[in-house]
Amino acid sequence: MKKNKNLKKSIYGLFIIYFIVVTWIILFKMELDISLLRNMNFRNINWIPFSEPLVVSGKVDVSEMILNTIVFIPFGIYLSMIKEKWNFIQKLLPMFGTSLLYEVMQYILAIGGSDITDLITNTLGGILGLGIYFLCFKLLGKNTIKVFYILSVTGTIFMVMLLGLLTIANL
After folding, report:
1. DSSP-assigned letters across all residues of 94-156
2. Mean pLDDT throughout 7-22?
3. The pTM is what?
């Protein structure tokens, strides 16, 4: 029993690290000097899904949509590991709410464009994470949480190292 509690605490810790990194990427644009964000002064809302911000030089740029989706996949996986008993809607609401909060904060702080497409793709990423966890649970049963825990530790270490290298390279 104590082993399961320690595992849950570790998963919460990894989720907090993930959440901090995602917040740093989305809100703080990976800046170490937050004062640089004051000069940004960019406040825009796009209410039309999959429209103009995606068109670059007359071509649709899907890379941002793909990245937004990928960044939120771990959110769905972590929520599945932490709140195993929650139903789909109970897991969907925090993912949607967090994405909405990021978009609102970007607008309020004038540090980026708020975009309905981001809200959709972020939430879709979380849903994909839920689906991935569900499928793995069907295949692996109770071992799923241990497998994802190992993947989470490895992924977190890799992500922190990669972001550290990117930060150092851009100093």
Report:
1. HHHHHHHHHHHHHHHTTEEEEEHHHHHHHHHHHHHHHHHHHHHHHHHGGGHHHHHHHHHHHHH
2. 94
3. 0.88
